[in-house]
């Protein structure tokens, strides 16, 4: 398997969450109150799985390796656009989390901010994933040797292994401060 394989598998789970988000946005726009617990789960998923785990492997491992390669200007531009998408999604997730906290506190004006943040994320991810799966990843894999690909797959597994520990160390540390 090439390094694009695990990343594309992760995309399928992200797409499922995006569909959940879009349904909830539609429900809210049709008069349902925001489900703060669901929104907490969405924010946690996007921060931990989509950003730290998935984007982390892309930015910290794949993109870093590719930067040492003689990439075409189009590939550099495509990678920069993907990185920009990641930054935009982080800002929207932050806004979603903040808006959800306001909503939980009774701020009715937060509802519009929640739906706008979700709409922004729903608009970014499908095209972003399509560009990675259909364009960027196939081209990027050609820059890696078999050995580099094998090492990167091993690094992906180690990255994931460490991430779960980091998450729950933070949970315990947060609980200890209460």
Report the average pLDDT across residues.
96
By helix and strand content, what is the structural category?
mainly alpha
CATH architecture level-2 label:
Up-down Bundle
Intertermini distance: 45 Å
Strand content: under 5%
Helix content: over 70%
Rg, Å, rounded:
18 Å
Low-confidence stretches: none
**How many beta strands in the DSSP annotation?**
0
Sketch the topology as an H/E string, one letter per element.
HHHHH
Describe the 3D structure.
Helix content is 86%, strand content 0%. It is built from 5 helices and no strands. It has helices at residues 4-29, 36-67, 73-104, 110-141, 146-176. Helix 1 (4-29) runs antiparallel to helix 4, helix 2 (36-67) packs antiparallel against helix 3 (73-104) and helix 3 packs antiparallel against helix 4 (110-141).
What's the topology here?
Layout: H1 4-29, H2 36-67, H3 73-104, H4 110-141, H5 146-176
Attribute tags:
178 residues; mainly alpha; Four Helix Bundle (Hemerythrin (Met), subunit A); 5 helices; globular
Describe the structure in brief.
The chain is an all-alpha fold and 178 residues long. Helices cover 86% and strands 0% of the residues.
């Amino acid at each position: 398997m090439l390094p694009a394989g695990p990343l594309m598998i992760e995309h399928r789970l992200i797409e499922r969450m995006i569909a959940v988000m879009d349904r909830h946005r539609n429900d809210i726009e049709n008069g349902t109150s925001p489900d703060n617990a669901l929104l907490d789960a969405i924010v946690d998923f996007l921060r931990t799985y989509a950003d730290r785990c998935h984007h982390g492997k892309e930015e910290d491992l794949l993109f870093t390796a590719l930067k040492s390669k003689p990439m075409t200007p189009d590939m550099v531009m495509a990678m920069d656009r993907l990185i920009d998408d990641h930054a935009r999604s982080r800002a929207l997730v932050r806004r979603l989390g903040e808006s959800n906290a306001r909503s939980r506190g009774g701020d009715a004006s937060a509802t519009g901010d929640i739906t706008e943040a979700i709409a922004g994320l729903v608009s970014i991810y499908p095209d972003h994933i399509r560009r990675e799966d259909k364009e960027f990843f196939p081209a990027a894999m050609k820059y890696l040797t078999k050995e580099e690909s094998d090492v990167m797959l091993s690094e992906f597994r180690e990255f994931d292994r460490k991430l779960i520990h980091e998450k729950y160390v933070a949970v315990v540390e947060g609980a200890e401060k209460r």
